[in-house]
Every structure is written in structure tokens, then in C-alpha cells.
Write a structure and sequence with these properties.
The protein is mostly helical. Helices cover about 65% and strands about 0% of the residues. It has helices at about 5-20, 20-25, 30-35, 40-45, 65-75, 80-90, 95-105, 110-120, 130-140, 145-150. InterPro entries: At1g67623-like (IPR040338), At2g35280_TPR_dom (IPR057136), F-box-like_dom_sf (IPR036047). It comes from Prunus armeniaca (Apricot).
Amino acid sequence: MDIPAEAWFKVLLLVAKHSSEDLYSMARTCKLFQEMLNDLEVWRTMSVEKYQWHPEWYGFDQEKIVEFLQKCKEHNNPEIIYREAVTQFFIFKDDEAVNNFRVAAKAGNMESSYIVGLLGLVNPTEGEEDAMEWLCHLSKMKKMDMQACMASFLID
């Protein structure tokens, strides 16, 4: 019984979402996985959680990590977009960061969704309804305690 390539691709995406090391190990096992590794969706799904987004922190012996992170950036990985937006917003005070938070949120990055929601609440010109929509979406995903987050904004 042959398993369709689409099924293998879904498995590859699931692995990419959880561990880049496991993904590369998987790609070394067969040619099909090596080919699938070049798919744009894989790079957008790829987990970069374990790596710091500061290429200057890595030495010459870690050049492959820097290349990996750069490739994720080139393919608009939402985690990389989020990390850059945090740096832009909190360190450089760059207003463009809000747009990047929105891009990452629309791509499914939860932290960006949360920040977009909070920024919308503190800056009603961005649209309070839109902000609540982002926060409610996170609440429905049940991955964040939105009740506690919302309570912190209410003044008795």
C-alpha cells in the first residue's frame, strides 16, 4: 500500500512545526522528504523557537544556524516576523512593527495576535472591535487564559 505524497507532506509539516532538528533528520531519510523540505509552506511552518533571533550572537562555528534563520526570514516565517517586530517596537520604537505584528498574527503566530489585540485596546483608533476579535480568537483556541488578561485591563 502506497501512502500519497500529500499525506507525507502533512506529516512533514507537523514535524516542522515542532522541531527543525527532527525535520532535517527526516529529510535525510529519503529523497521525497528532501524535496518537500524546499516547499515554501514548510519554511513558513518551521519552528524556530529554540534559536535566538540575533545572528550576531552566533559565532563562526554556528554559521549553519544563521543560514537556517535567514532562510526562514526569506520565506516569511511568522515566528521570525514576530521576533523582528518585537525588536522594532520595543527597542527601536519603530511604528512599522505594528504592521509586522499584524502580518505574523494573520499567519497564525499567537504571540503576535495577543500583542495586536492589546495594542488595539490601548489605542482605540486602531479599532477596539478588531482588537477584541484578535483576543477572542485566541480565547477560542484555548491556548491562553484570555479572561485573566482582560481582567487586568478593567478598572473597578
